[in-house]
Design goal:
Elements lengths: L6 H7 L4 H11 L6 E4 L7 E2 L1 E2 L2 E2 L4 H8 L4 E4 L4 E9 L5 H11 L5 E4 L5 E12 H14 L9 E4 L6 E2 L2
Antiparallel strand pairs: 1-2, 1-5, 3-4, 5-10, 6-8, 6-9, 7-8
Amino acid sequence: MRKKLSLDSRLKSYGLSRDDLNFFVSTFVQNRFPYNIKLQECSDWRMRSFYGKPAPLDDNAIAKHLMRKHLVAVFPGTSTSYLVLDIDHSEYLKEILKKILRAFPIPLVIRSSTSQGIHVYYFFDSSISVDKLRELTALKLNAHGIAVRPGYCEVFPQRNRALRLP
């Protein structure tokens, strides 16, 4: 019988520590319940459940996401402490990004998404209503000539849509 490695051992094998995991969770996971998972790159996203009810996100699932064993996406709840602008891959990507950086000049994280688009993160010192943040962000983006629409530029978090963790 094969011995199962502890979470700390698995993290260490990927060059991560428990502190790295805790930092990631405190920075990006605002709500552990419910969450979506994509087990293989070609599979569909599915809400993780346990006996037919949505399951809470645990540290093992987050660690496997960080180890690239699967992908995890989370829902925000009613408030958030960050904004994500999702720019989909297109011939306009660089132009849109330049406009976003003029409208919101200091992102803390910019990362490529799995579709070769970009997720631009902005973090706040306190929480704000998801709905209010989306409304204010859309107004500012529109004022800078950036249309908020799927396939172009989307604002996250969204109450009814999960956002893939970086």
